[in-house]
Amino acid sequence: MKIVKLTKKNLTSVIKQAKHYLEKDGLVVFPSDTVYGLAANALSKTAIQKLYQFKDRPVNQSVAIAVANLNSAKQYFRINTVQQSLLETLLPGPFTVVLESRHKAITQLEAEDQTLGMRIPDYFFTKALSQSIDSPYTATSANLHNKGPHYSITALLNSLSYKKKQLLDLIIDYGSLPHNQPSTIINLTGNKIAMLRQGDYLFKPVLNQKVISVEQTQLLAKQLLEKYLDQADNKALVMILQGDLGTGKTVFTQGLGHHLGINNIVSPTYVVYYEYLTQNPLIKKLHHFDLYQLESPEDFEPLAIDKLLIPNNLLVFEWGEKLGSIFSLIKNRNTLIILIKINELTRNSREFAVYQLS
Amino acid sequence: MKILAIDTSCDETSVAITQGQKVISNVLFSQIKIHAPFGGVFPSLAKREHLTKIKPAVSLALKRAGLIINKIEAIAVTFGPGLPPALEVGVNFAKALSQKYQRPLIPVDHLEGHIYSGITLNQMGKPKRQFRFPLLALIVSGGHTQLVLMNNHINYKVVGQTLDDACGEALDKAGRLMGLGYPGGPIIERLAKSGNINQYSLPIPMLQHQSLDFSFSGLKTAFKRLIYSLDEKQKLEAIPDLCASFQQAVFTSLLIKLEKAIKQFQPKLIVVGGGVSANKELRKQLRTLLAKKIPVYFPPLKKLTGDNAAMIGVVAYFKYQKGIYLTHSETLDRLPRTNLDNYIN
């Protein structure tokens, strides 16, 4: 392990040393616009294995790579014109952008869904480093997995065992870095979640109704609830709402809530779901889900939805079309499943198509 | 009094050590949104492993504070509002600590935390901050939008709140509608700088409404219709203007209601908290509105604007002073939809 002090004057010689070690599959600790980072050649399998060994990071966890500019980024990432224009505004800057990988960098660095994180930092040292080497390098923080990042080399070294220190080849010490926040992660890839396709299951049409106001939407919610309420005593009631942003999914759920004596329902988008105790003997709890933020099938696991599929529970799912991967689980429990599709006709009118799974 | 505070209300596992209003350490292990480590874990709910993170977070918070757990005098925890299974992890861990070490347990509402985040101090007791009542708090985050009046510590009256979406959620959803990825708030803030706020006219939510409540779902729908009316090329060219116009509509709505509330309650101090309070443009417009007539406090660090345990510890200190804590912690349960109005004492 070698430590060099970076000053205003010796940038060229320090860059030369960093280049030397990176090309020999070494690990280099470097200063950045956010925290001290750990660089390894992103095209070398040996170097990347060493990196994961150092970080104690589970092998399935992804690591972002730093590139010189958008042009060289295109070798490693799929970037469409919309993304291109956005990236031109944001970068270089303190952002990690998640994009589709071209699998040219070591694929171990990718996430399970084959996306890869990209950084183009706005910092004199990283700019100079990217210009001097041809391959991209990892831009992960120089700390162990599940430990906080470091703003000084002393703090980093104090946190490492002798064995860990031996894995580092070069440390570039630029003193104490300003305590900037770690980079903001922006995900520019689409959803990887399985969609619920109505055609795969036997849904029987129940009714089709046009509404022209919030009041009418909530009246419809009340009528539907009354229709199925009796069955809630021996089954979990599941309502799956499908409809674009702003079609009235939360408004509909508020209507269900009013009928159950709940008047403080708001959008649960941020926390994924809220639960409410009701005053009703047949439905004791309302679980209001919003799957808008969910991006992969694993996202369902911590929500433990199966535990909620018991009698006297009403589960309402906004963006219920994302239930694809766990729909058979819901179906095979003791549940009554109602599918509600909301279609925006004009600014104020909506069409509600209601189906029941038979 | 040294307090160990835990917040697991959503997707961040946070543990802090506080002493009075001072933050000694504030550890944040997060996945989604803005605080993720350099090249860290990518957004995914499945990785919200509060269970595996809470122990390392407690150890690190103690280590950074240079303390052993026996020196901690009370445990504080967020019991709501939030994602039920996430809250449960923090509450159960706090209960276990409180029982094991025989320390009082102080339950804190996450929103109290956002109010008090504006008066947190660093280890040296900086910046200088003084309470004045009546105090009017504006909470603006991804999950909440509220105006809260306080006539004393730990005494809240919710005078206005969102009827549907939170303001941060509205910004995030607008970001997605424009294809800007997630989270939308900070990206819109950056792109809005080069945009024209008057290029598109959007409805200012609840403008004619006499109450102090907010609503962002109508604005969201109007914005969606606007976006859908543009073709791909037009949209691309218009993105900075779209960002500026939308952000301004959200902020104007906040400012109008705040101004109305000030007239009604004549507060001596304004505090603003929550993730959206990190937005520099919002801070600027709030300062202009208040024009130095009423002091306004924002969280002193960006880290304190979002979800964090330091603010929970600071609230807990004031609660303890008022005798609000549990000695038999078994009775505490998570409460996913809490209401500040219920704590009047």
TrEMBL record, chain A:
Biological process according to GO: regulation of translational fidelity; tRNA threonylcarbamoyladenosine modification
InterPro entries the UniProt entry points to: DHBP_synth_RibB-like_a/b_dom, P-loop_NTPase, Sua5-like_dom, T6A_TsaE, TC-AMP_synthase_SUA5
PROSITE patterns: YRDC
Main location: cytoplasm
Reaction(s) catalysed (UniProt annotation): L-threonine + hydrogencarbonate + ATP = L-threonylcarbamoyladenylate + diphosphate + H2O
Signal peptide feature range: none
Localization in the cell: Cytoplasm
Uppermost EC category: transferase
Pfam families the record matches: Sua5_yciO_yrdC, TsaE
Keywords: Cytoplasm, Transferase
Domain of life where this protein originates: Bacteria
Keyword Transferase set for record: yes
GO CC annotation, single: cytoplasm
Residues in YrdC-like domain copies: 12-201
EC number(s) from the headed UniProt entry: 2.7.7.87
GO molecular function annotations of the record: double-stranded RNA binding; L-threonylcarbamoyladenylate synthase; tRNA binding
UniProt family annotation: Belongs to the SUA5 family.
Name of this chain's protein: L-threonylcarbamoyladenylate synthase
Organism this protein belongs to: Candidatus Roizmanbacteria bacterium RIFOXYA1_FULL_41_12
Automatic annotation (TrEMBL), chain B:
Species assigned in the record: Candidatus Roizmanbacteria bacterium RIFOXYA1_FULL_41_12
Subcellular location(s) of the protein: Cytoplasm
Protein family (similarity comment): Belongs to the KAE1 / TsaD family.
Co-factor binding comment: Binds 1 Fe(2+) ion per subunit.
Official protein name in the record: tRNA N6-adenosine threonylcarbamoyltransferase
Function: Required for the formation of a threonylcarbamoyl group on adenosine at position 37 (t(6)A37) in tRNAs that read codons beginning with adenine. Is involved in the transfer of the threonylcarbamoyl moiety of threonylcarbamoyl-AMP (TC-AMP) to the N6 group of A37, together with TsaE and TsaB. TsaD likely plays a direct catalytic role in this reaction.
Alphabetized InterPro entries for the sequence: ATPase_NBD, Gcp-like_dom, KAE1/TsaD, Peptidase_M22_CS, TsaD
GO biological process: tRNA threonylcarbamoyladenosine modification
Reactions catalysed according to its record: L-threonylcarbamoyladenylate + adenosine(37) in tRNA = N(6)-L-threonylcarbamoyladenosine(37) in tRNA + AMP + H(+)
Binding-site residues, substrate: I139, V140, S141, G142, G143, D172, G185, E189, N279
E.C. designation(s): 2.3.1.234
GO cellular component assignments: cytoplasm
Principal location listed in the UniProt entry: cytoplasm
Enzyme class: transferase
Gene3D superfamilies in the cross-refs: 3.30.420.40
Gcp-like domain residues: 22-313
Pfam assignment, any one: TsaD
